């Protein structure tokens, strides 16, 4: 009867806190709370570092946006500076011509022709190109504006007469040429 009531021999009792971790990591702290606190501190440091990087990136992007906005503003404000510099001598020539007290018609004509050359040169330097279609050229609705259609011996949709020159800035139409267009055989 004693054999049935006696507990079986379990061997020596082992304290679970004194056991080595099963993973084989001898450097792991014995207290899991300390390990979690260390992980939390590391994660908070990384989060702070990333937040600082985010703030710096946002500030840099804002500075780039502000500088770009200033550049656009300056481009609008001073974009015509080169063209204006080209026109100043033209204005000077016109004022000098008007300042002359006694002029002959021939001298005035020479002055006007010289001033027109200065103006044409300023246009060329600043890529302001004249649109002046000759009679017989095909009508181009992108560069010409038809004022009227007239019967003519020329083929239909060709320029009969240019009433006013047009102008391009680079490849963009500043003002279309005003033209009369042929309606064909009348």
UniProtKB/TrEMBL annotation:
Pfam families: GrpE
PROSITE patterns noted in UniProt: GRPE
Transmembrane parts of this sequence: none
Keyword Chaperone: yes
Any GO BP annotation: protein folding
Subunit structure: Homodimer.
Name of the protein in its database record: Protein GrpE
Organism in which the protein naturally occurs: Bordetella genomosp. 10
Lineage of the organism: Bacteria, Pseudomonadati, Pseudomonadota, Betaproteobacteria, Burkholderiales
